[in-house]
Amino acid sequence: MSDNFKGSDRFKIFAVLGQSQHGKSSFINLLSGCTSQAVGCNDGRSCTVNIHSVRFPDWFELLGSPETELRFFDVPGFGDTELRFTNRQILEGMKVTLAGLESRQFDGLFVFQSLAESSINLKGTLERIETMFGERVYRSTVVIMTKSDLLPPQVMSKKRTTVERVCQEKRLPCFLWINDSAELGDISSSQKATQISALRTTLLQLLPYEVMDMKEYEQLVKQRAKLMMARDTSNTVTTTVQVPTQRAVTTKEKEIVIEQTLKPVYTEEEVKRRALEERARPENRRAEVMVSTKEVDDFEYQVITSTETVSNHDSHLLGAFSSSSSYTLTNQRVEKIPIKRRIQESEVQYVSQPAVVFEPSLRNQTKVVEEAKERVVEKVKVEDELVERTVTTTRKDLSYYEPKAAKQLARERMQNREEDASTGP
Question: Using CB atoms within 10 A as the burial measure, which of 33, 275, 298, 324 is most buried?
Answer without folding.
Answer: 275
